[in-house]
Amino acid sequence: MATFKHQMTRNGNAIGLFLHRALKGRLDAFGDQKVLMLCAPGRRTGLPRSVMVRFLEYEGGFLVWGTGSGSPTEPDWFRNLRRASRARVEIGTTPVEVVPQVLAGTERDRVWREVVLAAVPGVAKYEAKAGRIIPVAVLRPVGVSPAG
């Protein structure tokens, strides 16, 4: 049985997806905070699972992180992303097929500190609340190599 918090998160995501689709992505940014729709296969069912997540543009791709609003466990969407060899994002109404790369070790730490926290310092509170390392991934459009 889902907890109240889990159910509220699920309901909030359903509303976000509805608004994204109904308004054709016109409200996918709130000030400097941009969101994209991520669709990845479920890790158990293989069925497409969509979620709205915050992102930063990074090295020709999209940087996403799984705070789960400070939950002690990774959000389901990030667990699905870990298993996916491909996913799709929509920014506005533009679909883009992407290859997810979950960052690890010193690279993850550097990107979390120098990119995510530098651009969105408020997410640090979720890391402290969660008591875990927040996972970070780069979603690279198919055919785009990392800058370097």
How would you characterize the overall build of this protein?
The longest helix has 19 residues, at 4-22. β2 (33-41) and β3 (48-58) form a beta hairpin. It is globular and about 30 Å long. The chain has one domain (4-141): Electron Transport, Fmn-binding Protein, Chain A (Pnp Oxidase, Chain A, Roll). The chain is α+β, with helices and mostly antiparallel strands. Strands 2-3-4-7-6-5 form a six-stranded antiparallel barrel. The model has no long low-confidence stretch (mean pLDDT 84). The chain has helices at residues 4-22, 76-83, 105-119, 124-130; strands at residues 29-30, 33-41, 48-58, 61-65, 87-91, 94-102, 136-141. It is built from four helices and seven strands; from the N terminus they run αββββαββααβ.
Keywords:
148 residues; alpha+beta; Pnp Oxidase, Chain A; six-stranded antiparallel β-barrel
In short:
The chain has 148 residues and is an alpha+beta fold.
Average pLDDT over all residues: 84
Helix content: 25-40%
CATH top-level class: Mainly Beta
User: What composes the largest sheet?
Assistant: 6 strands, antiparallel, barrel
Q: Under CATH, the topology is which?
A: Pnp Oxidase, Chain A
Structural class: alpha+beta
- Any low-confidence stretches, pLDDT <50, length ≥5? none
Gap between N and C termini, in Å? 46 Å
SSE pattern, N- to C-terminal:
HEEEEHEEHHE
CATH architecture: Roll
Q: Tally the helices: what do you get?
A: 4
Summed up, the domain count is 1
CATH level-four homologous superfamily name = Electron Transport, Fmn-binding Protein, Chain A
Proportion of β residues?
A: 25-35%
Over all CA atoms, what is the radius of gyration? Answer: 15 Å
The neighbouring-strand order within the major sheet is: 2-3-4-7-6-5
Q: What's the total number of strands?
A: 7
